[in-house]
């Protein structure tokens, strides 16, 4: 789902259901295995949605394939290097994976004179999404490529964005509120 309307509807339903205690009890009684299965499906859909954003670029281009491949590879390997500092060798207990970046932050591989800088950099470089974003952003903006190859031709002209029905449907404001924000030219809608 890339539509803002689905998120709005889901948020309204969840807010309304939060006032009913029996429904909260029912949701709390769902087994962890089912929740894990639902989360797997949800994260698969989020990943597929992220990759579907590549539809505007030339996916057959070797430039784009190298950028995607490097960003995916480095987003898996760099955080693994940083997260190995979260393992405490003298202890038999391991830290849950969701606490790993915060353990790395206190004694990770980056050591500067400022403890705050150490904490921020060690935490950021142990997140997969941060590494993927940094690598893809730098490579996409430094490796030469045409506007068609980069996919920015769609966003460069407001008229082209209006002609694309998926953009208008997915990113349009609800209930014709967009008419009040016609002064926002950078959105292109």
TrEMBL record:
The keyword Transmembrane helix applies. It holds the Pfam family Xan_ur_permease. The chain crosses the membrane at residues 7-27, 33-54, 66-82, 119-139. GO terms for cellular component: membrane. It is found in: Membrane. It comes from the Eukaryota. Keywords: Membrane, Transmembrane, Transmembrane helix. The keyword Iron does not apply. Its main location: membrane. It is a multi-pass membrane protein. One of its GO terms (molecular function) is transmembrane transporter activity. Belongs to the nucleobase:cation symporter-2 (NCS2) (TC 2.A.40) family. This is Nucleobase-ascorbate transporter 12. It comes from Zingiber officinale (Ginger). The lineage of its organism: Eukaryota, Viridiplantae, Streptophyta, Embryophyta, Tracheophyta.
């Amino acid at each position: 789902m890339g539509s803002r309307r689905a998120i709005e509807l889901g948020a309204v339903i969840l807010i309304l259901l939060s006032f009913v205690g029996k429904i909260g009890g029912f949701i709390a009684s769902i087994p962890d295995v089912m929740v894990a299965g639902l989360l797997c499906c949800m994260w698969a859909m989020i990943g597929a949605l992220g990759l579907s954003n590549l539809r505007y670029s030339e996916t057959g281009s070797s430039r784009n394939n190298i950028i995607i491949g490097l960003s995916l590879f480095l987003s898996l390997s760099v955080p693994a290097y940083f997260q190995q500092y979260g393992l405490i060798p003298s202890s038999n207990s391991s830290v849950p994976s969701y606490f790993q970046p915060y353990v790395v932050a206190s004694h990770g591989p980056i050591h500067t004179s400022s403890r705050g800088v150490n904490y921020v950099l060690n935490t950021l470089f142990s997140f997969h999404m941060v590494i993927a974003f940094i690598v893809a952003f730098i490579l996409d903006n430094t490796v030469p490529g045409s506007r068609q190859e980069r996919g920015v031709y769609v966003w460069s002209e407001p008229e082209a964005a209006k002609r694309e029905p998926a953009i208008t449907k997915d990113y349009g404001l609800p209930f014709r509120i967009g008419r009040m924000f016609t002064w926002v030219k950078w959105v292109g809608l």
